Amino acid sequence: MKILSAIKSTVLFLLLTLVTQVGGVVYLCYKFIAALTLKKGSASTLFLKKLALFLLLYVIVSFVVVPPIAKHFGRVPLQIIANNKFPLQPRNLFYFVCNRHYVTPELRSAAMQIALDMRNNKPKVMLQYLDACFPFKNGFPLFPHKSHDDGEKLDLCFLYKDGNGNRANSPNFVGYGACELPRSGEKDQAAICEKQGYWQYSLLQKIISPLNATDHVFDEVANAKLLHRIAKHKSIRKIFIEPHLKTRLGLDDIDKIRFHGCGAVRHDDHIHIQL
Ligand SMILES: [Zn+2]
After folding, report:
1. Does pTM top 0.85 for this prediction?
2. How many angstroms does the Cα of residue 253 sit away from the middle of ligand 1?
3. pLDDT digits over 41-64, tens only?
4. Among 32, 60, 106, 164, fewest CB within 10 Å belongs to which?
5. Domain check: are 221 and 241 in the same one?
């Protein structure tokens, strides 16, 4: 039983560290405090008390302890709730609850300026972000991304309309995996990569696409404007989208917009920007 318990604790520690960076350390603190204080009661009461203790510790660490320490590592959190002054917010709670919304002050400022620009000019849109980086330590990867490890990378949602022509969020609540596929005659980079053996290239699409809303339409005009505005910003040095979208949106002359390589995943479901 002790071995099973140790395996369970190790798996939870690794999983929480992989997904949230600080969750593993919070789990160790929770185990220590729980062993000292939570000993009596029925199994169900103990379970609820332990869960409440872990969540309380996680919230305190994530929202009170982490932000000031992250500042010393040169990282700041992105906006959580958008308003007219900061019109940028995460696609869903997961990204900030899991501490995946930290960037350098330069990237935060660039993202805010781009978001404000998109909010104040036609078409007026509210930008949403997906994964950014963790709060601490260059080189600590943000699973499953290969490159989001230094505070200088951020993924943004493309812009969509619903069946009635109104502004809409990305077609699923995750934000990834709803791909704007190549049309006939357009370059199919995903097929090229998969032919070369890069099986992971469209993996997210295959897993998540059943969740997609079916009436959402990729807004070509708004996305072309967004990408022009991102490319115009002097702090942003690289932008990754799929080659067929670069051509379709008339962006072939923008050198900052590049192909990310077959070793990554497809980028026709989100925009990757970096310093
Ligand atoms: Zn990215």
Report:
1. yes
2. 22
3. 788 888 898 899 999 999 999 999
4. 164
5. yes
